[in-house]
Amino acid sequence: MKKIGKLSLVLLAGLALTGCSQNSKQNTAPKKNATTKTVKNNKKPTRMGHLSAQDLTPQKTVAVVVAYAGNRYSGSWNKALLDGKQNGLEVDLKNQSDYSYMNEGSGVAYMVSENAGYTLKQVNSKNIYYLFLNGKKLESVTMKEMVAYLNKRDSDKLVTNLAKNAKVNDERSDSNNVSSNSTGKKSNLPGDDGLLNVPTELQGTWYTYPAADNKLETIKISQNKIDNGYSSLELHKINAKFANDHLYSDMSKSYRNATKNWGMAQMIGKKIYNINYLNVRTWMQGAGDGIYYGAHTESGQSVIVIGEGAELWTNSVAWKTPQLAQQYKHKKFRDLFYRDDQ
């Protein structure tokens, strides 16, 4: 009886352990009717760069601008970015005044190609960058905004590589050192062959009484400009092929705005009636002959002969002083060519 009792206790203990084990398995096993949901997170973690808008070197500043504009815009900006990756970034510092469409900035044009560039100006303690493409302003943006845009795209490595091989060339010129007979700087506008530098003998302030007019007219001529009291024109040469292939009326509004104060100018190149004339017309002017200005001498005085029309008739003679203009008012000189009905 005692042996049987001990055996019974062992068997009962074994059954108890087996029951516990089965209950444990049943509790941990999934129920047949339960549904298991798997939540998938398809959202990729946002990569963030670590560029800072503070204390950038000139090379890194240029790299940020090109990386930003090259990613946002196509054409020359994108090409400048691709070229910078392969061959190294190169930026030319030029006089902002060489680009008539760049109306905002502090005097320096940063050109990454012939058609793409930017200017910079501090406004309310913030540096504002003005981006241009093909003679048109794209946008104004701060360095902080450009850096934020690039950081969202994890562009640290791109900017670092661009800056590492960046070259900044200072090609700004002092207009006082430009030869009076040379062609001035070109803008990036189509058709522009550069500023025309007026010969020194034509430069100065001149006074005249136009034909059949008793009102004294003052004409001011500088190296690249002419002001006759009615209009002030910056004198540019025009590309002959461009002039033949395009009409002013077909040009964009931004182009017309950029060239509204331009004069289409050229030295005739051969003497007419023994005078070497400068011809000035409005930019891309089709019909009309414009006005001619020729350095000459009359009565022992340096003068400018003002001509007009298809036959280049003399309209009037401009003098160095109002007194001389009054003294020779409407006088016709034998060596000049006048229209018969004048």
Chain-wise SSE layout:
Blueprint (H helix, E strand, L loop, with lengths): L1 H27 L29 H15 L3 H12 L2 E6 L12 E4 L4 E8 L2 E8 L2 E7 H9 L4 H9 L2 E4 L21 E4 L8 E5 L8 E5 L3 E3 L4 E7 L1 H6 L7 H6 L3 E6 L9 E6 L8 E8 L2 E8 L4 E6 L3 H6 L15
Parallel strand pairs: 1-6, 11-12
Antiparallel strand pairs: 1-2, 2-3, 3-4, 4-5, 7-11, 8-9, 9-10, 10-11, 12-13, 13-14, 14-15, 15-16
Describe, in short, the structure shown.
This protein is an alpha+beta fold and 342 residues long.
Helix content: 25-40%
Q: How many helix segments? A: 8
In N-to-C order, the SSE pattern is HHHEEEEEHHEEEEEEHHEEEEEH
Q: End-to-end span in angstroms?
A: 157 Å
Number of discrete domains = 2
Task: Tell me about this structure.
The chain is 26% helix and 28% strand. With 342 residues, the protein is α+β, with helices and mostly antiparallel strands. It has two domains: 58-170, Yope Regulator, Chain: A (2-Layer Sandwich), CATH 3.30.1460; 178-327, no CATH class. The strands form two sheets. Strands 7, 8, 9, 10, 11, 12, 13, 14, 15 and 16 form a ten-stranded mixed beta sheet that branches. It has a six-stranded mixed beta sheet with strand order 5-4-3-2-1-6. It is elongated and about 80 Å long.
Salient structural properties:
342 residues; alpha+beta; Yope Regulator, Chain: A; 2 domains; 10-stranded mixed sheet; 6-stranded mixed sheet; disordered N terminus
